[in-house]
Structures
1.
Amino acid sequence: MIPITLFLPPGEQTDPLVVHVYGAYGISLEGPFEPFTDDLLARGVAVAYCHIRGGGELGPRWHRQATGEYRYRTVEDILACLRQPTWLRGLHLVHPFIDPLATLTDPTSNLASTDLAEYGDPRYDPSIWDLLQRLSPMGCIQELPAQSHRLPRAWIRAAERDARADNDAIHRFCQHYRDA
């Protein structure tokens, strides 16, 4: 069972739905006021927050259940929440970790030091290497032939000098996403 917080716009029967997911570092989705949610609700769009394993909603054990070799559980949880992922019409990615394998194998990456504890070390563990290669958004999108899939629209938010995201990877991902 994956907790989901659902916000519905007033008076709407059938709504488009934006799904917000975060499952890493033991951080909960609950937090400061999010004007993005209010804006969507005002436009008649429902918003769902999926509290998947890896996040902090259900404590440290919930977080540990999706770290290292168990990182795949975040994807399982997302799919369990969505049920019908083919219905997706849009993505909103905020500071996304697009290419974990490249980041964790790059000794000069400023992100690698904090992420090794969360994801495991692919440099020394072949099972982590394989897992990250399968789960990598960059790896998945690069495998799609050009113009082969109708993908949902994507909105990616990251700052130009974002310490939490690899902007080069985001730019490359965006190009592959557009091509696919």
2.
Amino acid sequence: MPLAIKILFAFAYDLLLLCAIWVAGALPFVIWQGEDFQRNPYALVGFQAYLIGLTYLYLTYFWTQNGQTPGLRVWRLALVRNDHYLMPRYQANLRFLAGILLFWIGWIGLFTPMKRTLQDHLSGTRILPLSAINPEN
């Protein structure tokens, strides 16, 4: 299977897990704000920032700990620096910020010969099969 397709499937898998996290994470916020919180624009902005924060914690934790979100792990892929080492926190922050700002156009790079998203180019990272990182896998 082509690498770009595996990356997209890994993204879909992680998105499903994130949806579950968002639903579970939304419960305390909705209970705290009450059932009419959607009428308060400040509460809505706060809620969106809260969900982005949950997403940030989920992604950057896995990226910096072992380079694999659950979706990447299922597809035997890893997110690493260009030198094949795990990325530090500042690089994960840069990749997350670039991913948010360039979400719709960032994925176009997957279908180029380099198979790297725009956020990968900007943060100096890449998604590779585990066999390319550790030949014994």
3.
Amino acid sequence: MALDSNGYKRKTYDDLLNDMSAKAKEKFGENANVTERSVLGILLRIMAWFLSLAWQDNENVYYSAYRKTAEGTQLDMLLPYAGITRNLEQYAFGALEITGTPNHLVSAGFLVSKSNSDIFFETTEDIVLDTLGKGIVEIKAVELGSEGNVGANTIVEIVNPDADVTSVTNISKTSGGREKETDLEARERASVTVEGMGSATTNAIRTNILKLPSVRAATVIENYGDVPDAYGTPMRAVQAFVLGGTDEDIARAVFEKKAGGIQPYGTTYVSVIDDSKNPQHIGFTRAVEVPVYLKVAINTNTSFPTEGIEQVKSVLIRYIGGTDIDSSVYAGLNMGEDVIESRLIARTYQVPGIEDVSIQLSLDGISFDESNLAIGLQEVAQLDASNIEVTVNV
């Protein structure tokens, strides 16, 4: 049977062909010709091919019922049972300084772009320049995705010229843009969410923080002792370490799940208004991003694709977390998780055509070795595509 106590076992094309050939000989005699060039053999192979597709569909239906194996839309339908939905693409936002004629009105939708690129932004509201001919207005990327996250003073080109506007620049980097959450990221977040159901526990606080679309990693500790711990957490207090997200959203997430009478400590504090309209000072601490540097040496065969180096970098970034070549940002390892060399090697073998791999790791980009990298509780490893050096030996 296909389905038993061990789960579902799909019959392959070869399994079906062998079974059908055996059945044909049972019905037509042992001398029945079922070779690939015989009429009967051709019919059996055609039927086995289409039946194998049906078996594949049945297998997909079976696995789509479980959160850890479902994909795409099927996974989206299961995520609400874990209390979350998939994080969709987000626009990047920032602040633009406009210089021009004093008291001139610049209407919403004024289009600008990053220098020498096709990354466009538009103003979200009307603005009247002051008496010095300057004004600051919010801008939003025209396209969804992380490519809208650009550095400060890089948005300097005016797309639709205005005689009363002489120059523009973004006074700080734009942020908030992200790609659609992958199946792997959604599954991992769902697993964490299920573990943190309820309230007044560190798991519940962490889960509530991770529900925020712009949060990439979080961990929460508590201090039962009578003296502050190694991370500065006072007695009878909790401290959340968070990567990503806005201060206000994080503070609200902590407040919603913390226990009564327990101090939410941190280096950043935000006032949250409770149901009684009283301000509550909620603290949390921003995670320390630890840059990781890699030297990857691979031996390849003819199956190694032309864009293989980019694929190697991508699989490593997806595992550790950080910024890919196309500016996509991935969550990767959670806070406090060490970078394990053997796991990096295993991920690298996902790229076809690789015969052998050796990886050296570094925290400073100078001293490299094959040792694992220890990451502190309040730290999170981050890998940028520019910090990966790949050497290919054919």
4.
Amino acid sequence: MIAYEIINYLENYFPLNLQQPWDKCGVQIGDIHQDINKVMISLNADLQSLQLAIDNDCQMLITHHPFFLEKINNLSFDNHHGKFVQLAIINNIIVYSLHTCLDQGKDGISMNDWLINELDVHDVKCYDDIKVGKQAILNVPCSTSQLVSKIKDKFNLPVKYAGKEKMISSIAICGGSGAEDIEQLAGKVDAYITGDTKHRHAKYAIDHDIVLIDVPHHIEVIMEKKLKELLKNKNIEVLTANINDYYIY
């Protein structure tokens, strides 16, 4: 396939006009007219994922987090930004990223749809104006501790939480950094799952009787297998990076 054919296919699900104003989705580096027979999908655009693509003879690296989302002061080959661009160009690898486009998605295909549906729910809907965060009803209500255990098991990630032991029927989720949304969810759902929370968010959860469950940003790695499934009928080989979280727990 040609790179732009893969891009056009993905953008049917995740149009670039869905990205937030501050985001940098789309082509990061490379030639969209290049022939592609093998693709690497990775949560992050970093030297480790790029090297993995090179080692596996991939011609395209598709990521969630964009390379150009970081502050880049120069492209000296002596730093990681310059080295990333150098390696991508030398090895003829096109780098393409879907970030907030994928977070929002269309027709029930998005990051938070994937995440919330892993927890056995029904009546999934958006809870925010930008249509990123999702809320739903658990098929089987459970206690706070049971929900925490279920999240640990489903996503194989460490979890911390704030809030009392109670029965949970309704939940909301926002992968990545969605801590500020807790204020609009208190009184609407029993538990909220997100990442990068702070002490004040935990206090807010306790004060407003909502369980706040903090999961690592790495929970978004679910996009690797989900994008692979979307591309399964295309005439290309698709690999997933499966690189560990940056943090060691």
